[in-house]
Structures are given as structure tokens and as C-alpha cells.
Amino acid sequence: MTAAQSRKSGQQWCAAICLLLPLVLTGCGGSELTCIPHDVLVHIGGETDVVLSLSGFNHSVEIYPLYEPGSAAEKITNLGNVTLYGNPEGLNVSLTIHAVRGGHVTVYFNATTPAINDDEAYVRVTIIHSDEVFFVCIVVGWVYFVAWSVSFYPQVYENFKRKCVVGLNLDYVVLNVLGHSVYGLFNMGLYWIPSVQLQYYEIHPMGVIPVQTNDVVFSVHATVFSIVTAVQCIIYERGDQKVSPYTWAFIGVSSTFICISTIAAITYSITYLSLLYYCSYVKLIVTLIKYIPQAHLNYKRQSTIGYSIGGVLLDITGGLLSVLQMFLLAYNNDDWDSLFGDPTKFGLGLFSVMFDLLFIVQHYVLYRNNNPPAVYLPINRDDYLPIDDDRSTPSIMA
Fold first, then answer.
1. Upper half-sphere CA count for residue 215 (Cβ side, 13 Å)
2. How buried is residue 304: exposed, middle or buried, by Cβ count under 10 Å (0-12/13-18/19+)?
3. Which of 16, 76, 65, 83 is nearest to 43 (CA)?
4. Distance of alpha carbon 272 from alpha carbon 316, whole angstroms
5. Is the N or the C terminus of the chain less surrounded, counting Cβ atoms within 10 Å?
């Protein structure tokens, strides 16, 4: 290579570096586009402002919005593309969002250059009919949370008072322990473990963790009192009642499934988030089957003595308020798909309410004046002591 060619080549490299240097420096300077705030609440027909903030970028750039879900165009007016002119000291631009109809919309603001990090440039818009309905939904949510939490107490108290669990189906008890335990794992994992939350955000980049503080408190509280009830079934008189082989088989299969899934998560075959979702699926199945043994036992004994009606009344109160909240939210957000588009949650809520209604009918109508059959426990090989199910003092145990 001649000296002239070398000089020409050097000049070309210098020119390329001079052209690329501003972009490199801009990227290294941490150019970032953000939207403040990330969550806004607005009435139908109203409007609200958000602020786009651009820092570390000194050139003009075009920002274009993307919307989710597909029906977003019916809910808010199109914001259109925005051209921002970089400023060394940063730049803030206010945008107005006009609400047309109720629902939820997420707007993502995307920069036309990869030199700008726009991960935090999004806003979730909740459009409602009424503030009053919104606050009623919050109150209803806390009331059914309390009702469901307190619903464990009457059964524990009745067992303690009678020193006997005859009439309380043991299948129902152990299935409750399993269901609330795996549900507690799901809630605590999503609420407390950062790596699991990161996995959730990888699937739902702009989503919200679907577990709140009250969910964690409820599931832990429910697990503890389910275990307390199970311990009462061990130490108190239970007659000839025992856990059925079908329930033990279901618990065995479920536990094996969760153990295998745990090993798969440890070996990175699946994510820990998937493991937690598998736990939630077990909870759903438990909810579908746990009431059946208790309803059958009541029918078989022609009595509800031993199964606390107070817990049933609190449970149905929580269930009805939960369904009511779903309807209020669907109305206030004009988002009926959230109600009927998730048949699992809605169906499970109604399923629990239907069984609670069955227990109420059994207690107050069908078996209202029925006394349960006597329970005979052996004192010795030749003698038996008849035990009335509803007495409050313990019997002589075998």
C-alpha cells in the first residue's frame, strides 16, 4: 500500500469515527424515554395528562404509540406520532389522553432509534364510569376478604367446644390443607421472590403482579387454620370417620406432580413461575372437589351437626360479595370480557356459592330437626358406649 493510499484510508476511518462518535456518545450517555405516571384513572368522556421525558439525547427523534388491547381505539382517542427535539438538559412533553368508553388500555411509546431505552415509556389507563362505584369495589373487596378469613373460626371453635369432630368430613379437611398450602406458595412466590417476578415481567412486560398483600395474608391465615382444624381431627374424637382412599390417592398424585415440577424447576427444565402456576392449578381442582365429601356425609347422616353453619354463612357472604365485585368492576370499566372472558374464576366463585347454598338448605330445611345417629366407641372388648354427636364433653376413647 502506497503512502497516499494509507493517508486516504486513514482519512476515511477518521470520517467514519467522526460520524459515529455522536451516536456512540449518545448511547453511552444513557438516553432514556420515560412516561410519568405509569397508571392513570379517568372517567368516560374525560381526559388526563401524561408526561413524556427524554434525557441524554441531543437529536430529534420520532415517538410512535402502540396500543393494547386491539379494542383500544374504541376506548381512547389516537395520540398520533410525536417528534421530540433533544436537549442536553432533558426534555418533557405533555400528552392528553381522551377517554371515550370504559375499560383498560396500555399505551407503549416507542422511539425510532435503538439508542434510546424506552422500556419505561408506557402508561396503563383505567377508564371508569364512577368514582363511587370504584370505591364501593374497594370496600366490597375488603369485606369479603374479612368474611373469608373469619369463616375458619366457627369450625375451630365448634370442634374445641365439642371435643369431637364427628360430622366434619375428614376428606374436606385434608383437601383444605392441600389447597390453601399450594395457594399460599403461589401467592408468596409471586409476591416476595424477585426472580419469579422477573420471569412474570418477561411474559407480561408492562403487567402488574396479580398478587396483593391481602392475598398473601389470606392464604397464610387460611393455611394455618386449615392445619389447626386437621390437628383437631387427630386429637379429638372422630368416631369411625377416616380419610377415603380416593382422597389419599389425589393428594399423593398432586404431591408427586408438585415434587416432580420442583425438581424440573431446580434443574432449569421449567421456570419457577411455571411451578407456581402448577400449584395454582392444583388449588383450582381442590376447590372443585372438596365440598362433595362433606355434602355426601351430611346426606348419609341426615344431619349437619358437627359441620359449622357459621363458617358456611361467612363463606357464602364472601363468595357472593366476590361475584358482586366482579360485576361492579365489569360495569364500571365497561369491560364485560373480564367477567365472562375468564370463566374459571367466575365459575369457581359461583360453584362455591352453590355448595354453600346446598349446606344451608341441608341445615335449615332438610335436616333441621334431625338428630344424628349415635356413635358407638368401644370401652373394652365387650362393652360399647353410645355417644351423641352434639354433646360438649369428651367421651371415653378406645
1. 14
2. buried
3. 76
4. 34
5. N
